[in-house]
Design a protein that fits this description.
Layout lengths: L5 E5 L19 E2 L13 H21 L16 E5 L7 H12 L13 E5 L2 H10 L6 E5 L5 H6 L2 E5 L6 H11 L4 E4 L13 H8 L2 E13 L3 E9 L11 E6 L5 E8 L5 H13 L5 E8 L11 E2 L1
Protein name: LOW QUALITY PROTEIN: uncharacterized protein LOC120267483
Organism: Dioscorea cayennensis subsp. rotundata (White Guinea yam)
Pfam family, one: DUF1995
Length: about 300
């Protein structure tokens, strides 16, 4: 295999053109229905939000309306519902994060005993929490707070707690709050770190983050050869609210003829950068004498942090 490197950079848009990642009005790639499983990656921002909204709401329905029983001597403590959602963000501005969060969470098709459940969204800063009240049009069913300003009243009122774009410096607080609201469901939405950063989390923090089941994730990638480039995605979408129902992680790559995305590999567990890199190099080696590089566009909400490009 030729020597090469992996580039990590932010994915500013879910609009995947046939030549490069752009934030312009370039079209999404087409998908081959014969190559997809029960789910296919979205062809537009609206479809991505709808897919994530459907996946999250159907997954939340059961634990929300059938709360876990109180542990006793005869009944073992059951696992708290913890879910994770990752959706592409348009750019690295706070406004884009606020709008995306509102699009996903404002009108979730959920009911709790015939009424809308109360959702508490915890933001990484007080400025974002204040702006969220405007972005969400002061919804009575959605509360907003930053970590420092969180009150017991807000925490006790919430039926669901959502952590929106939390930073690594807030992990201990995130874990503490998650424990406090147990057995109520919690959602980790677009964390500000990349999935591969989690291998550096130590001890109980690593186990804690791993306890969140990914119900929706969509991540773009690009394979660059000497004479060609090819686009693709890493994708998972839980169907029918069954997290343990065998929904695989799909690696799909754009075909040279027709531009359709075809599944090239499936994983039961989330593949890291090195695993995806090997899959793509093997794929390109079959059609290209030399693979120059693989550009891996990391989890989209991380663009909120404005991190720098990393070369390996």
């Amino acid at each position: 295999m030729a020597s090469s490197h992996l580039l990590l950079k932010h994915f500013p848009s879910i609009q995947l053109s046939k030549t490069t990642i752009k934030t312009t009005t370039s079209s999404f790639p087409t998908y081959s229905s014969s190559s997809s499983s029960s789910s296919s990656p979205p062809s537009s921002r609206q479809e991505a939000i709808l897919q994530a909204k459907t996946s999250l709401s159907t997954t939340l329905h059961k634990p929300l309306n059938n709360p876990l029983p109180i542990p006793s001597k005869k009944l073992k403590k059951q696992r708290q519902p913890r879910y994770r959602v990752e959706i592409p963000i348009l750019d690295n501005s706070p406004d884009s994060l606020l709008q995306l969060s509102a699009d996903l969470l404002l009108d979730l098709p959920l009911t709790l005993k015939g009424t809308k459940p109360t959702i508490l969204i915890l933001w990484p800063s007080s400025k974002l929490a204040d702006s969220a009240n405007t972005a969400f049009n002061s919804s009575n069913h959605v509360l907003h707070s930053d970590f420092a300003s969180l009150t017991s009243l807000a925490l006790n009122t919430a039926d669901i707690v959502v952590f929106s774009a939390p930073e690594t410096s807030q992990l201990e607080e995130l874990r503490r709050i998650t424990s406090e609201v147990d057995p109520r469901p919690v959602v980790l939405f677009n964390p500000a770190w990349a999935f591969d950063d989690e291998k550096n989390f130590v001890g109980s923090l690593s186990n804690f983050i791993a306890s969140f089941d990914v119900v929706y994730s969509f991540m773009g990638l690009e394979v660059r050869g000497i004479l060609s480039k090819r686009k693709g995605v890493v994708f998972r979408c839980v169907k029918d609210g069954v997290v343990s129902g065998g929904q695989e992680w799909l690696v799909m790559v754009e075909q040279e003829k027709g531009g359709e995305l075809k599944v090239v590999s499936r994983f039961k567990r989330r593949p890291g950068i090195a695993v995806v890199e090997n899959v793509l190099y093997d794929l390109m080696a079959a059609t290209s004498p030399v693979t120059k590089s693989v550009k891996f566009l990391r989890d989209l909400a991380s663009s909120v942090t404005g991190g720098k490009k990393v070369k390996q």
